[in-house]
Structures are given as structure tokens and as C-alpha cells.
Amino acid sequence: MIVLKLGGSVITEKDRPETLDGDALERAADAIAAALEGGLEDLVIVHGGGSFGHHNASEHGVSTTAGTHDVDAALAIHGAMKTLNQFVLRRLLERDVQAVPVHPFSAGHRDRDGTLELPTGQVETMLDEGFVPVLHGDVIAHAGAGATIVSGDELVAELAADLDADRIGLCSTVPGVLDDADAVIDRIDDFDAVADVLGASEATDVTGGMAGKVRTLLALEAEASIFGLEALATFLEGENPGTTID
Fold this sequence. Notes:
Elements: E1 2-6, H1 8-11, H2 22-37, E2 43-47, H3 50-59, H4 71-93, E3 99-101, E4 109-110, E5 116-117, H5 121-128, E6 132-136, E7 138-142, E8 146-150, H6 152-162, E9 167-172, E10 187-188, H7 191-194, H8 209-218, E11 223-228, H9 232-236, E12 243-245
Helix pairs in contact: 3-4
GO molecular function: ATP binding; isopentenyl phosphate kinase activity; kinase activity
Binding site for substrate: 49-50, 54, 152
Keywords: ATP-binding, Isoprene biosynthesis, Kinase, Nucleotide-binding, Transferase
């Protein structure tokens, strides 16, 4: 079973509010459809917020830890993410991928310590019935804080752990985790060894950037890969392009 994340920076113009990168999304959908037609089974897709979610979250001062009790703010962020989710679903459905949405705002919550609780029984049942669940970064109810952000990376971690994923893929705008000479780091198994070269995202990002991704993936049992869009088909064919994290 594969959990695949399509980064928000890949499928949107992340520095332009609510702007889709249609060409990139088409390429991603083509690769996914081809892999499924070629026999790939049990795929769960998560997509990031890009210029849809991150822009609205930043506008309202909401992050994974800073919450809001303003219903208009929560609905603005959730609405933007539902719009992006519809774009993703439409591209997949046009290619006969049996994609269905799972909106985290209605599916999970955080407790008072900020720990994410995300039931995954519905996702497992969707997989068993031949569907391709498509989740996304979202707002989520947070005990004592109103609503905060749940990132795509957090969702990937929860899904991979609960569904016992065999492989995890993060499709990014870079060909892998880059060192200070902009060369791809082949393998990471220790965060401290690469901490100095992991900087924050240049575009608006309320969910932790590359450093957060690497930390999250290192905590999981399944092997993970971070790679660029041009390597998505290769990853879905079973190879490990970009940076392997274990």
C-alpha cells in the first residue's frame, strides 16, 4: 500500500493566491492513472494546500498550533481546500481513476495537547472497495483552540502508520532533499546529520517546510521518498528516486 502526497507547491502557484498549476496537476494525474492501469493497487493520495490553503491560513493567522474560533476564518480555509480538492479529483476522474474525497475537517480532531486523532476506517474501507481516497490539508477542530491547521504531512504520517503502508512518497518541487551545494542527498536516517541544510520554505507555508517533512518521515516505519514531479512515475513503478528517508 502506498501513501502519496502531492505537494501544494507542485500543483499550485504557491506564491500567487488560489492559483492552480494546471500543467503540473495534469502531469501528476497522468502518472497516477498510468500506474493504476498498470496494476498498482491500494493507493491513498494526500495533497497539500499550496496557494489555496496556506494563503488563507496565513491571512487569518491560523497554523498547526495557533487556532481560531472565527467560523468565517475556518470556512474560508476549508472552502479553499475543498476547491483545490475538486480540481485534483476532476483531473483524476477524467482519467478513470476512482478518486473520492475525504475531508479531514469532518473526519478528525486534535485533543488539548494538540495530538491529531484521525480515524482511518473509512479510508481502509474505500481501498477495499476499489476507490482511491484523496485527502488534503485542512482546518480541524482543536480542543481548547477552536480550529487549527492539519497539514498534509501530518495526514501522511497518520495514514501510513494506521494503514501499515509499504511505501510513502512525497512529490515536491525539488528533486529531493538538497545539501548546501544543491545536490540531492541520497539517503537520510538521522535528522541531526542534515539539520544545517534544512531551511524554511521560501513561499508562505504554515506547516513546517522541508525540515518538518524529514522529521515526520524519520519517525515512521515505512520507507519514504522525496522526489520531484518528473520522478513521480518512477516512484509509482516501485523505484526510490530522489532522497530515501528511513
